[in-house]
Amino acid sequence: MQVNRYYTDEMKVKIHHEGENILLVLFLIMVASGAMAYHFFDYKPVAWVLIALMAILFLLVLNFFRLPRRRFKGDNSDGTAVLSSVDGTVVALEEVYEDEYLHRNVIQLSVFMTIFNVHANWVPVKGEVIYYKHHSGRFLAANLPKSSSDNERSSIVIRTSTGEEILVRQIAGAIARRIVTYVEQGEQVDVNDFIGFIKFGSRVDIFLPLDTEILVKLGDRTWGGETLVARLNNKKKES
Q1: Per residue in 97-110, pLDDT tens?
Q2: Which of 9, 48, 86, 193 is the most exposed place for a label (fewest CB within 10 A)?
Q3: pTM above 0.70, yes or no
Q4: Is 149 a catalytic site residue?
Q5: Is 206 helix (H, G, I), strand (E, B) or coil?
Q6: Active-site choice (84, 147, 155, 202)
Q7: Exposed e or buried b for every residue in 177-207, given b needs 16+ CB within 10 A?
Q8: For 175-217, what is each residue's pLDDT tens digit?
Q9: Nearest to 102, CA basis, from 210, 20, 234, 227
């Protein structure tokens, strides 16, 4: 299956503000540790190996907090486009009963992020935020099914212009221990907006109506804010 990705200018990359302080502290620690290693080790190759390892660690963290500038360039004139919220791999695509807010059978589409993925979270659908709640919980591996209901998580419900209510769930993982959510109840959001950020390996679930046209399959790679993962039925819901 061809994944619908609408390319934007990926070369324009900046650092997410969530990582600025972490990177500054890590850089200072790296410089201080490198200087001490070079000063105290008589055998200089050992010092250079330690400095190289610290530099690699810094680059990995820098890579984690990168923030490509993306804008969806596909057609969303009718508000039915559903984009992936995150970069990662589709690990769940099934009919489930959502019992926190929707209280009905829906399609669960889950994307798992590794520590090498961009961890900014984009808004998947255009509409109004009508519900937000943060839940304390466990820190199971985020690719496990139970993580959706047992892990530390935040749930956001967005009502589209057609009346559909889409639940987005940010889920912490075994390493990710901080979920940041930017949107608030009553706010109007678009697919080019950020919904939040999850620090280190984690997952995002999107719960969609059963009549949604799904455009990805298990194992497909997605890009947050770019990959068209589904199309909502554009029939206007009765109030």
Answers
A1: 999 999 999 999 99
A2: 9
A3: yes
A4: no
A5: strand
A6: 202
A7: eebbbebeeeeebebeebbbbbbbbbbbbbb
A8: 555 788 889 999 999 998 989 888 766 889 999 999 999 999 9
A9: 210
